[in-house]
Amino acid sequence: MVAQSVGFDPVRYKETTREQWQGVAEAWRRWGPTIEDWLGAATRAMLDLAVIGPGDRVLDVAAGAGEPALTIARRVGPTGSVLATDIAPNILAHAATAAAEQGLGNVETRVMDGERLDLPDAAFDAVTSRVGLIYFPDQGRALAETRRVLKPGGRVAAIVYTTPERNRFFSIPVGIIRRRAQLPPPAPGQPGPFSLGGDGVLADVLARAGFRDVRTEIVPSPLRLPSAVDCVRFEREAFGALHQMLSGLPEPEREAAWDEITAELGQFEGPDGFAGPCEMVVGVGTK
Ligand SMILES: C[S@@+](CC[C@H](N)C(=O)[O-])C[C@H]1O[C@@H](n2cnc3c(N)ncnc32)[C@H](O)[C@@H]1O
């Protein structure tokens, strides 16, 4: 379990996180093709490292609008199945709709907190989570729950951001908003986008949760869009935490923050468009 600093309220944090994702659910679905282009390489690495194949029963935690759960559903085929879970019903509803539209009868969705899996022991061959674990106030508890629901020999696989320096498409907006809104950075042990991204941190939390054969792989994941303005539009519409961080500022100051972010992200525009620096780490372990 990670240490929690004084003043941090995990219950309130979780409620706020849920509200944020309720609010941007439609945008996360609408930006789906951009997200797949951005996270596709890391996702393939995650599914390969977790050796997900035909017939597997897979749990996807913090499943969002349905990817990668639907890709997994195609991979496990009709003899396998996927349970997609998320704390925010609005975003998970998009996953259910997409599964139905794509004729995937082997996908089930259930609203569920990733730290409290209302599921039997030893029920899954693999548990995946793409950019989900970083939002959990108690990552140790979430991984203990993951381990409980895995069959012996089952695999956990997760994708998280590495460091702020290597994810400037996101750390620049976060830094500008934090400075303008006079917000402190998350204390060590608190959840946050880069909380598991330091060298060896993801491997360490997996090992401490009792997983063996832990491995990690770094996957460069540049965010490619036509322009910096498009990147800001994506982050404004689909990254609810940024709105939350800005909420204490009057409207003109919020606009000024977005203007500064757009100007700063302009440095990543080139002749081929915008390529925002982003790097993911994929971690896998076996029960
Ligand atoms: C960045 S989105 C990722 C969604 C999806 N995995 C993807 O890669 O597109 C983060 C997701 O984590 C979910 N989430 C945050 N805290 C959670 C918790 N405690 N339990 C379950 N899901 C949670 C949010 O509702 C949101 O859908």
SSE arrangement:
Blueprint: H1 10-23, H2 25-30, H3 32-49, E1 57-61, H4 69-76, E2 81-86, H5 89-101, E3 107-111, E4 124-130, H6 139-149, E5 150-161, H7 168-181, H8 201-208, E6 212-220, E7 223-225, H9 228-238, H10 240-246, H11 251-265, E8 269-270, E9 273-276, E10 279-286
Parallel strand pairs: 1-2, 1-4, 2-3, 4-5
Antiparallel strand pairs: 5-10, 6-10, 7-9, 8-9
Bound molecules: S-adenosylmethionine (SAM).
S-adenosylmethionine (SAM) binds at residues 14, 17, 21, 35, 62-64, 67, 86-88, 91, 113-115, 130-132, 135-136.
Commentary on this structure:
The radius of gyration is 18 Å and the shape is globular. It has a seven-stranded mixed beta sheet with strand order 3-2-1-4-5-10-6, sandwiched between helices. Strands 7-9-8 form a three-stranded antiparallel beta sheet. Helix 5 links the parallel strand 2 (about 80-85) and strand 3 (about 105-110). It has about 290 residues and is an alpha/beta fold. Helix content is about 45%, strand content about 20%. The structure holds S-adenosylmethionine. S-adenosylmethionine (SAM) binds next to helix 1.
Largest sheet: 7 strands, mixed
Query: In terms of per-residue confidence, which ranges show pLDDT below 50 for 5 or more consecutive residues?
Result: 1-5
- How much β-strand is present in the residues? 15-25%
List cofactors, ions and other ligands.
S-adenosylmethionine
Gap between N and C termini, in Å?
A: 18 Å
Number of helices: 11
* Integer count of domains: 1
| Full CATH superfamily name | Vaccinia Virus protein VP39
Looking across the biggest beta sheet, what order are the strands in? 3-2-1-4-5-10-6
Task: Determine the CATH topology.
Answer: Rossmann fold
User: What Rg is obtained from the alpha carbons, in whole angstroms?
Assistant: 18 Å
Q: Mean pLDDT, rounded to whole units? A: 96
Indicate the CATH class. Alpha Beta
Tell me the CATH architecture: 3-Layer(aba) Sandwich
The secondary-structure element order is: HHHEHEHEEHEHHEEHHHEEE
**What level of helicity do the residues show?**
40-55%
* Approximate shape: globular
